[in-house]
Amino acid sequence: MTNRAHTANPDGPVLVVTNERDFAADVVVARLQASGYPVERLNTETDLQVVWRPDEPPLAARYSAVWLRQFLADPTPQDSVNDVDDFLVTREQWRTWLTDLAEHAPTRWMNPLWSARRAENKLIQLRTAVSVGLRVPATIVTNSRDEAAAHQAKVGRSIVKALASAFFPFSDSGFMFTRPLDEALALDATNWTQQPVIVQAAIHPRTDIRIFIIGTDFAAAARTEVDAVDWRTRSGEAEWERCEPPEDILERCRNYLSAFDLVYGAFDFAFDGDTWWFLECNQAGEFAFADRPLELGVAEAITTWLCGGPR
């Protein structure tokens, strides 16, 4: 018997796969419990003993829906490149174990695991955004300091982002925030050859906008902070407000999610007063920071979908 011979359990609970510090998941789990809908939560920190056998049903077989949020351990400060490498290797073991969830196709996924992983690839994100008609700032991916400098000379002030995980000269963890390109250009050229990074024209000044798409529903919030390179590093200095994106932008966002077979996406745009510039889409993007104070209804929409609402 293969895994695909196992049938779905339409009366089973919803499985939320995340961590103890996921406040967004807290809200959705509480809503599910309040509605009387059965829900189970699997946290990274749970004392989980794994015993897997190839002849047993996949983990997802007992659930009616799965919401894979943030199960993998968060990046934490490390003392050296080797320590960061050890952390990422350990996380990859759990990442591989989670794939057993995906071996049960009939279960409803908020975002199917393999689709979600493909959507995490920033190269595919940018190419897909272009294909659905979204505007992307002038971008190159390179491990050449000279090419990066030439790009900035051509398009103007630029920024640098990690292609995946971290760029250790800028971060002592497995994660890196967006940085001004000039900081990276100050590094020795050997720091560049180790790995490719994203070099992109900076949108300045700008309004940062996050659009949440949940199936057919949407919500959006905006904040303006002229000097911020990455709003996540200065979260207390500007207030988020509700906003109404143009219908054509929403339609392109929905087409983007359809291209990946996703239900949920948190889109980041930079608006310069004329153009909505696509920066990225996080298939597990945070929403509680704006949803709760602005009453956007994101948690409600996710809860409805997990309970069997519109796909």
> Main sheet: which strands, in order across?
11-10-9-12-13
CATH level 1 name of the largest domain: Alpha Beta
- CATH architecture annotation name of the largest domain: 2-Layer Sandwich
Biggest pleated-sheet summary: 5 strands, antiparallel
Radius of gyration: 20 Å
Cα distance spanning the termini = 30 Å
Could you tell me the CATH topology label of the largest domain.
D-amino Acid Aminotransferase, Chain A, domain 1
Number of domains: 3
Poorly predicted parts: 1-6
The general outline is: globular
Helix content: 25-40%
Classify the secondary structure makeup into a structural class.
alpha+beta
* SS field, number of helical segments: 10
**Topology as H/E string?**
EHEEHEHHEHEEHHEEEEHEEHH
The CATH homologous superfamily of the largest domain corresponds to ATP-grasp fold, B domain
Total strands: the figure is: 13
Overall mean pLDDT score? Answer: 84
Which percent range describes the beta-strand content?
15-25%
Protein name: ATP-grasp ribosomal peptide maturase
GO cellular component, one term: cytoplasm
GO molecular function, one term: ribosomal S6-glutamic acid ligase activity
Organism: Nocardioides marmoriginsengisoli
